[in-house]
Amino acid sequence: MSHPEEKLAELGLKLPEVAKPVAAYVPAVRTGNLVYTSGQLPLREGTLIATGKVGDAVTAEVASECAQQCALNALAAIKAEIGDLAKIKRIVKAVAFIASTPEFTGQPQVANGASELFGQVFGDLGQHARSAVGVPVLPLDAPVEVELIVEV
């Protein structure tokens, strides 16, 4: 299997710098053979790539792109914690929070922006359990937030 960062490059993507926390927490914590990330927002070069609610100001397609960016930010946090993404044995669980209107019910499709990236980069090791949760608001008015648990 190719190195995860080579797979990202093949997709035209690269790991960003680790996003600075917006409050009192750290981006990732390792305990034993698991790494837990804090919720990652769709920050690209320090700026949210979209704001607002999915189903209103943000389309499902843009929200899916946001989920992918959140996933990249989570992978960057994991790399900073373990040194090399090739040490990931499995993406265990992803949780996607989607700030959406009450009528919007496409949270699973939005979360696919992250889930599909994990499959493309890690193959079978990227198959994971997942929750896609609609919420009324997220920090900084972000439309999506993603957190991960990975086995190393």
UniProtKB/TrEMBL annotation:
Source organism, top-level taxon: Bacteria
Ranges where the Endoribonuclease L-PSP/chorismate mutase-like domain occurs: 6-151
Annotated Pfam families: YjgF_endoribonc
The protein's name: Enamine deaminase RidA (YjgF/YER057c/UK114 family)
Organism for this UniProt entry: Kribbella sandramycini
